Amino acid sequence: MTDGYGGTLGREPTRDRRPNTSRGPGDQRCSADQSSWCGSHRASPLFSAADRGRFAGKPQISLVEICGSLSETGAEGSRGAHHKQSEAQMDDLRILNGHLIDPAADMDAVADIAVRNGRVRAVGVLDAEPARSVVDASGLLVIPGLVDLHTHLHAGGTFWGMEPDPVAWYTGVTSWVDAGSVGAYGLAGLMEARKDFRVRSAILLHISAHGLAARTGESRDLSFLDVDALVAAATKHPEEVRGIKVRMDASTVGDNGLEPLRIALRAGAATALPVMVHIGSGPFTLDQIVDLLRPGDILTHCAGRGARGVTLPGPIRNSLRAAHERGVIFDIGHGAGGFSFEVAEAYLAQSMPPHVISTDLHVLSASGPAFDLPTVMAKLQAIGMPLVDVVRATTSAPAAALGLDAGTLTVGAPADIALFRRVDEAMEVGDVHGVARTASERLVNAATFVAGEYLPPTFPPAPPSWVSLSDAQRTALNARERRLRELLTDPLVPISGVANQIPTTTAVNQE
Known about the structure:
Radius of gyration: 24 Å
Largest sheet: 8 strands, mixed
Helix content: 10-25%
Number of helices: 14
Mean pLDDT: 83
Low-confidence stretches: 1-83, 507-511
Strand content: 15-25%
Distance between the termini: 62 Å
Number of strands: 17
């Protein structure tokens, strides 16, 4: 998949974010061709999937029920009185009646979306022309496909790596940023692996040329921190390599102190790329790290206990505030050890909200405590971050941080779309230390589209053998696999519900 990127970071006023049941003139926003895309709105609550050519050769699974009754028809069957419309003029997908939240476009209203050739054709109140696929999203939130700024891909190629597609389809994450799994030596392997991803992906190249092949220790030998090799690799793949990663803690840098960060920053200056810095305890202070960061650099695990100085008076707190004000991007980067409710709440209390919410999803965190991006989003909502800010921090803000063509559904943008049910029920969520908070609601994914194509279900594999699991995690994983096996081994329908696949013909009388 081609990854062309570009975006802007915007902010919009807070509004009532419950789905509206009516439209007004202010809810309408269409493309320049208003005569084609605006007018009376009539739509059938159905989804038809006649065109899935992008996934040719891959297993196809039909879209399950989103809301109400769903059926399938081809483009010919849906045309009806509009048979004069040519196939070339027909939209590939229309999503109707959903509550669209798109912070980059200052959009928070009921609206329709038309998709053609993988990009958004129009947004607003659409006319009644048919489309190859139509989804009635009444009662659902429709948001840009989520952008996870901190993940670890390349399963089988690194200690941390996992596959994105088995998680993407049920979480709405359509753009995944691999945060340093590989350095210059391993980039070719990840470039090859990502060819099979259905989702979009970008890469933060590790300053250590061998990346995260092992669990830790990658910057203990400074000879591996090869700026020339990184610059050559980033220059060869400018669309894919969008930044540089360095981890700063005692186990990764050894006796090298701040030098790995300084080398990463030199590489960043040579390539004009941002540097993402993992923070932890080490032979340096937090403010020594933070004071070196430039506007646009990314401080990940910003709400880990390594950053708890935000709650205290003195230079550490002041360095964080100064960094926040000068444009350093604060990223949650939850992971297996990088998120504390105490620290996150202190940021919000001091009007220093994180710019980006990411998971740091990898084989150690995917079975908990991070789980997935919607779960991490619920944790920030649980401590008072408004939904529209949470959506911004998982769409337009991470896209802008790396210049990705993602995170918005404005006309012309890639049609990466996530549909969610907004479930009003309490859910207990925890940080990496077992501290719990209660989220009053959660977002449950109903469907995910990349370039206007529905992502079909893909079952996630078991964690690799080197991941330690609790008895509860192992039992839950086994139960999940058993439930799926039982679901698929049961006949889909009774014999009376099977459509005849062989056309009936009239027997010829032979005398």
